[in-house]
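Same chain as my last thread, 344 residues:
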Amino acid sequence: MKVAIVRNQSFDGVVSLFGRRCPETYSARTVQATADGLREGGHLVITTEGDKQMLAELARFMPADEHGNPGGIVFNMAYGIQGDCRYTHVPAMLEMAGIPYTGSDPLGHALALDKVITKTLLRSAGVPTPDDCVMRDGYDRWPASLRFPLVVKPRHESTSFGLRLVQTPDELREAVEAVASTYQQDALVEEYVDGREVCVALLGNEEMEILPLVEQDFGDRPVRMVTWEDKYHKTSLPAGKSCPAPLGEPLAAHIRAIAVATFRACRCRDYARVDLRIDRQGHPFVLEINSMASLGPSGSYVLAAAAAGYTNAGLVNRILDVAHTRYFGVPATRFESAVHASIA
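reply #2:
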């Protein structure tokens, strides 16, 4: 099958640079590993930018057949270039053009990217999540019921950007002001759950594969949270990871159930990662769901997949097959000579 990897590496392919620039991008190494894995799986592969030239590139590589049916599928690795709800931009363009793709649709990405809407959906589904409020600036009042310490984070960001743990009202005001000035958006303020942190990697749709649970190992770190510095390897005391997480089966089963409920409530598709905290009494609370779980080699999703027996090629081809089956009822077709015929 013809597979086009769409990613965002450049900011040049826009009409104008106007709006908050996306701080996330896949490394060239991870994109190349994905392409190599798909070729190993028997597919013809190109890589293209998710920008204003994308649809013309896809029309050349995977034109529709004589009946108007799709001539290939996109493996979506595009985080977006700029603006709000950036994960939604490439999927929306692909839907307009009638091109199938891996991962969540614009609705799923939009719901998962808005942490406040996510928490509203979780509560409606009976999924436990920490108590919270939304603050627009440091002078807003917060409910007296919220207990310090509190976690402050931007409403729409991912990858722990802007995340801060605060202990006092003055620190809270300062953190909210930092979110408002740096990210031009509301701050989500929620109670800090003192305890363990676990990630749940999900793969599938109607039939869901739940990969082995991953626990963050904070060691002797004073702040027991996964920060931006952890995810981008910028700290001298990085958090380790244990997989499978050393949890008793009753608790693990409960965590798996609420992770799937989170995936369903947020209308995600194909694959995602759910992050939870477990308090000192053993009660889990969902923090958020990442509708574009990182496929980088050091990420929790890939670690969980490796523990389940997936190679890199096995994982990316499984994601492709899950998406293709969702659209067409069968896995993606293979070409015998794909490795030699692929377009670089």
